Amino acid sequence: NIALDKIVVKDNEVVVANNDSRLSWTQTATGYEGTYTTSTQDITPDGDHRITVDASDNATNAADQKSTTFNLDQTAPVIKATIGGTDIKNGDEKHVTGTPDFAFTIDSAQEPHDDSAKDVFKYTYTPFGGTPTDNTVTGARKFNLASEGTYAISVSVTDAAGNPATATYTVVVNNKPPVLTAVLDSSVSSQTVDGTIYYKDAAKVNLSVEGNDLADSSSFVVKDNGNQIDNAEVVWADDGTGKQTATVQIELPGTDEAT
Predict the structure, then answer these.
(1) 79 pairs with which residues across the strands?
(2) Distance (Å, whole) CA 205 – CA 244
(3) Fewer CB atoms inside 10 A, N or C side of the chain?
C-alpha cells in the first residue's frame, strides 16, 4: 500500500518528479509497481547525471534508495585538422609544397573520443592532368600527401554518445615551379647596334608562364626597369593535361630594359 505522494525522483539532488502524472502504477501479487519516464525537459544539461528514487509507504517505512548514473551528451564533436602542422578550417582550400601530413583530432566536450574505429577518412585524389581516384580509410587520423595533385578530403566521426560530425578540406600539393619565358615581338621594326636592340616605336614583349596550379590566384608581376606595369592584361588557359599557362603582351616605350 504505497502512498503516491511519497515517491520522489531527483536528478543530481534536484527534484524532477514528486507524484506527478508521469508516474504509472501497476498492482502486483506483492504490492504495486511504479514506472516513471523522464522527458527531455526534465534532464537537459549535457554532463553527468545521477538519478535517485526514494519511496515510503503510509506507515512511513522507507525503501532502500535506488539510483542510476549516466552521461548526457547532445553536442556534436568538433573536428580540428592540420596540414603540415598548420591549422586548416572546415571548408578551406590550401596550396602547399613538399610532402605534408594531413592530420585531425577530435574535440568532444563531454567525454574523450578514443575509439578511432569510429573515424572514417575519405579523400579523392586527382593528379595534375590525371584521373580522380576515391579512397577510404577507417581508424586513421593521419595521412601523408606524398604525391602532387589535388586532395578533396572528407572526415566523418562519431563520439561515444553517437553524435556525428563531418568536415571537408581541399589540399593542392605542387612542387614544380612555373616556367617563365619572355620573347621580343619580332614583328615590330627594330635594329641592333653593339648588342643593344633599338626600337623607333614602342617595343612589344610576349611573356608567358606555364605550370601546375596557376589559375587566377597565382602571382604574375611585370616590371619595366623595376617599376611594375599595372595595365598588363593576363590571359589564362588550361591545356587539359593539368598544365595552365598565362600569357601577356606589353608595350615598352623608349629603349628601356624589360625584365
Answers:
(1) 106
(2) 20
(3) N
Residue 155: strand pairing partners: 121, 167
Nine-digit cell at 152?
Answer: 578533396
- In angstroms, the Cα distances linking 92 to 60, 61, 85 are 66, 65, 15
What is the mean pLDDT, run by run of 10 residues, along the chain of 259 residues? 62 77 77 70 77 81 86 86 95 95 81 62 91 89 92 89 90 88 71 73 70 67 72 63 63 50
What are the CB-based long-range contacts (under 8 Å, 24+) for 54-57? 54/7, 54/8, 54/10, 55/2, 55/6, 55/7, 55/8, 56/3, 56/6, 57/1, 57/2, 57/3, 57/6
Task: Report CA Rg, the chain.
Answer: 35
The one-letter amino acid code at 207 reads L
Strand order in the sheet with 203-212: 179-184, 203-212, 243-252, 235-238
> 72, 50 in Cβ contact below 8 A?
no
Check if the beta carbon of residue 106 is closer than 8 Å to that of residue 112.
no
**Cα separation values, 53 from 8, 20, 28, 209, 219, Å:** 6, 14, 20, 77, 70
Q: For strand 164-173 and strand 93-96, is the pairing parallel, antiparallel, or unpaired?
A: parallel
Neighbour-count burial of 248, counting CB atoms closer than 10 A to its CB (0-12 exposed, 13-18 middle, 19+ buried): middle
How far apart (Å, rounded) are the C-alpha atoms in residues 118 and 158?
6
Give residue 222's Cα distance to chain centre: 36
| DSSP H/E element including 190 | strand 190-193
User: To which H or E segment does residue 9 belong?
Assistant: strand 8-11
